[in-house]
Design brief:
Catalytic activity: a quaternary ammonium(out) + ATP + H2O = a quaternary ammonium(in) + ADP + phosphate + H(+)
GO molecular function, one term: ABC-type quaternary ammonium compound transporting activity
Shape: globular
Domain ABC transporter: 16-243
Bound molecules: adenosine-5'-diphosphate
Number of strands: 12
EC number: 7.6.2.9
Subunit structure: The complex is probably composed of two ATP-binding proteins (TmoW), two transmembrane proteins (TmoV) and a solute-binding protein (TmoX).
Helix content: 25-40%
Strand content: 25-35%
């Protein structure tokens, strides 16, 4: 059973020569022949240096850009045959997303930020708030429902981001460098918090990071990207013993 599947994904950005990586072999795509599967309930980490193609793959998987070639299935749905409207619907209902910069709405309270995806879905105020309160509690922010984002520490702001990404009970959870903006101690605390939540929720997860230690610490399996390709794929144990 798969949470997601990528088959020989190639992505070339535009026709502009500056859009793609140029190396001694000439012009190469931002992503090329990228294949992997994300199993149901696993933490699948995409790891690689800056420019290796991680965001390109993530943007393809979340339907923000279209691959030049290849197949993508996310939560049983073939993205290649999905309409624009289908993709918007999937982003609202099936996918949960957490961003490096938290991407909170600065003038909304913690509770309203967390409730926001349900507002977009047209849920009643009572239903939104009940669910949002539950999520705020889940991430340990009870008592801070009425705070504004700037009144919270970075770690707390990302707890709000995490709570918001889970209010719609997504089938697949995408986290894009979620802890990279945080201080090392807070980062470690948030990694523990993330594992605690996953233990509870058992989501299918795509987690993007450039941090090898973070990948090793969190992943069930890791895909290492370099130059737009997946150069290695395996469990942390496999990657440590067979580097
Ligand atoms: P990563 O997320 O690992 O840092 P990216 O997927 O952002 O890597 O980038 C892979 C390659 O694609 C890089 O060479 C980058 O410059 C290029 N690239 C990324 N986004 C765009 C874009 N919107 N237009 C053109 N080139 C892009
Ligand atoms: P950190 O040291 O983790 O960055 P802060 O020093 O920013 O945390 O905040 C410590 C505590 O004070 C947090 O619980 C936060 O919610 C609260 N806090 C921070 N700024 C404000 C503020 N402007 N108004 C009310 N509470 C605040």
């Amino acid at each position: 059973l798969y949470g997601a599947k990528a088959g020989e994904i190639v992505k070339k950005y535009g026709q502009n020569i500056n859009d793609d990586i140029i190396n001694k072999n000439g012009l190469i795509p931002a992503a090329r022949d990228v294949s992997f599967d994300v199993r149901k309930g696993e933490i699948f980490v995409i790891m690689g240096l800056s420019g290796s193609g991680k965001s390109t793959i993530l943007r393809c998987m979340t339907g923000l850009i279209e691959p030049t070639m290849g197949q993508l299935t996310v939560s049983g749905k073939d993205l290649g045959t999905a309409s624009r409207q289908d993709l918007i619907g999937m982003r609202r209902k099936v996918m949960g997303m957490v961003f490096q910069d938290f991407a909170l709405l600065p003038h909304l309270t913690v509770l309203d930020n967390v409730a926001f995806p349900l507002k977009v879905q047209g849920k009643s105020r009572a239903e939104r708030h009940a669910k949002a309160r539950e999520m705020v509690e889940l991430v340990g922010l009870e008592g801070r429902e009425a705070y504004l984002p700037h009144e919270l520490s970075g770690g707390q702001q990302q707890r709000v981001g995490i709570a918001r990404s889970l209010t719609t009970e997504p089938e697949i959870w995408f986290l894009d460098e979620p802890f990279s903006a945080l201080d090392p101690l807070i980062r470690a605390e948030m990694q523990d918090e993330f594992l605690r939540l996953q233990n509870l929720l058992q989501k299918s997860i795509v987690f993007v990071t450039h941090d090898f230690d973070e990948a090793i610490g969190l992943a069930d399996r890791i895909a290492i990207m370099a130059g737009g390709r997946v150069v290695q794929i395996g469990t942390p144990e496999e990657l440590i013993t067979n580097p």
